[in-house]
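Worked example 4.2. Below are the chains of a multi-component assembly; read each line carefully before continuing.
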Amino acid sequence: MIKKFFFQLIFLYLFFSKEVFAAESGGMPQLDPEFWVSQVFWLTLVFGTLYIVLSKLILPKISANLELRKSQIQENIEAADNQRKDSELKLKEYDDVISKSKLESKNFFNDTKEKTLKTINVKRDLLEKQIDEEIKKAENEIDQLRKSAPQKINKIAIETSSEILKNLIGAEINNSSISAIVDDLFKKNGGKYYGN
Amino acid sequence: MAANPMTQFEVYRIGPEIKIGAFDISFTNASLFMVVSSLAILLIFNLGAKKNSMLPNKIQLLAELSYTFVSKMISDTAGSKAKPYFAFIFSLFMFVLFCNMFGMIPYTFTVTSHIIVTFVLAAFIFIGVTIIGFIKHGFGYLKLFVPSGVPIVLLPLIVVIEIISYLSRPISLSVRLFANMMAGHTMMKVFGGFVISLGIVGGWLPLTFSVALTGLEILVAFLQAYVFAILTCIYLNDALNLHH
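Applying the procedure described above to all two chains together yields the following structure tokens:
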């Protein structure tokens, strides 16, 4: 459809412009040699000038600019690389210091802990010894007390019996006979009260 | 209505008639656009080369990108031996490119749409490359016409074909550029003529075509300059590094 329309357009165009075409001289102006020499002359002149100015003045400058930029960029890259290496080294150093100090602090902590534990143990031992001694002493005392208790009780029993007898009978009874009885009783029943 | 699409290629005198002997070397519209293109190139690249900052501005970037583009093109096709010819190929590429591009501005003249201009450029390249080839390799340059690994029986035929293809280089190089530019501009003129003759009612379709063609022609303008330069590099490569 569009194609058909397009060809109609061309036909119409040719139809309307036939007269105009006929009025003008045909042919290609390119093949008219009238200005060939002039074109060759001006082409040589202009292109030659262009070539000389470009090759002698402008292109070396552009080339130098490019080279300069290239070397500058290279330099910058190298500098950046060096700095990166430097910082990596420093980072390593820093890490080393950190890990070293960590180790040190750990060791120090452990040392202190051990020392403290030792001191505590020593003190505890001392204290236990003291306590043991105290306990022994107290036990001794108790033992002594326990040993002396029957005698005292006997004595009390003798005195009490003599007192009771005195009140009952109204006569003094020889203490030695009472004590003989008490001793006798104690021997018979003492184990019941003192267990040893 | 200048309906004839060929009138845009007409050369006319600007200013007085200058004659050297029998030759007419008057300043014409063609000369004017050669001068304009060259001045534009020199202006842009001079501005681009003027000051060197670490971060290039737009015009400096343009100049440097063009430089590296052409430099890469040469080293890719002709190798490192072609370095002394860099300035010539750069000038050639820029000259053809700017002439093509200035031709894309309406009412201007396209220098490269004239066979005589492109032929002079191509002939210069052809002669130059041939001289370089003979200087570098002496008569050994003639080995270019004798490809290796061809049966003896076929050799006479191949040599003739190679010689013809070598001699037709300037013609093919010049006609390619000239024909592309002329055909493109003629076509645009024809479509522009359609817009006028069909008027407000039917002119829209050719106008659309005209717009599309303008884009295409700008592409062609660049491409033909590139092809012209890269073929020069290839011919130079043949002369510098004899592969055959």
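Take a moment to check your reading of the output against the notes. Chain B touches chain A through 58 residues (CB under 8 Å). The longest strand of chain B covers residues 19-20.
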